[in-house]
């Protein structure tokens, strides 16, 4: 108190007598702020637990006053297991795997040029959806440059992988997805988090069901309304090549073939087992945890994106090697909540009245993010 009330002259004298005093004051202030933030976090968690016990859907996001957990855990794991760095680098089989799936899906589309709509829908849901969702997650892999060491080659392969999806998205996806990693949960930057409009609309099981069926639309259009980015040269290339492919499909095989491709994309991103990863990755079912892994068989069809804690900890490791991270450092992951069924996650999201669009962890904009803006 004396320091606050004393004159500038006395403050200067005190600094001269004790140069470390200002540092001590700053440390105490920082400690006080950390304590207050932790208290606010605990109070927020307590409120959420009370709402959960009462069966009431959350009315605000989970707010965190600490940095996202992956950077610090990455440092800890690498200091203890430096051999994990040997897993960094591209997947040599990526090009082959993508080429096979693209070829198979385009060939299937040509076979369905005169199929009935019911048959087309059934094949799209039980077959084509798995292929297109696989390609969507291949594009996710390529956004981290995990097929080639040269970034431009990954971008070109991403545009190729985009072809059966029917809608140009690979280049734009990379722009926003890398921000999701760098600024996980940051308000107004991480476009993986539902918008305020979604939180107002999705308030019961019926609305949640519709949202799940249309979640790809929300993922696609959310950034355009919240944080639009001007399209660049590569987006123009992505758009041009995709529209040319779509036009060629319609010209040579007809509208039904193109409809099959687009149906495969959107039914596979809705009420579908593979789409469970959209919810399982970061929707908070346990208040103190914001990222969740899935250790089930569908990982083999989804570039092992289910190893999501491991992926955020080490985004430079290809999906095919993420299981090795857990094998090397099991003590960092075995204690975390995880899933074995994406279908169960969708069911939990729909039927748990306390879970909804607000069930995500958010944090305030850091100074580094403001400067980059």
UniProtKB/TrEMBL annotation:
Domain of life according to the entry? Eukaryota
Q: Where is this region: Disordered?
A: 1-50
Extract one GO cellular component term from the record. endoplasmic reticulum membrane
Task: List, as start-end ranges, the regions of compositional bias called Basic and acidic residues.
Answer: 27-50
Enzyme Commission designation: 1.14.19.17
Q: What class of enzyme is it?
A: oxidoreductase
Ranges where the Sphingolipid delta4-desaturase N-terminal domain occurs: 56-94
A GO MF label: sphingolipid delta-4 desaturase activity
Give me the reactions it catalyses. an N-acylsphinganine + 2 Fe(II)-[cytochrome b5] + O2 + 2 H(+) = an N-acylsphing-4-enine + 2 Fe(III)-[cytochrome b5] + 2 H2O
Q: What is any one GO biological process for this UniProt entry? A: ceramide biosynthetic process
Keyword tags: Endoplasmic reticulum, Lipid metabolism, Membrane, Oxidoreductase, Transmembrane, Transmembrane helix
Membrane topology category: Multi-pass membrane protein
Q: Entry's PANTHER family?
A: SPHINGOLIPID DELTA 4 DESATURASE/C-4 HYDROXYLASE PROTEIN DES2, SPHINGOLIPID DELTA(4)-DESATURASE DES1
**UniProt similarity note:** Belongs to the fatty acid desaturase type 1 family. DEGS subfamily.
Q: What does this protein do?
A: Sphingolipid-delta-4-desaturase required for the biosynthesis of delta-4-unsaturated sphingolipids and derivatives.
Query: What is this protein identified as?
Result: Sphingolipid delta(4)-desaturase DES1-like
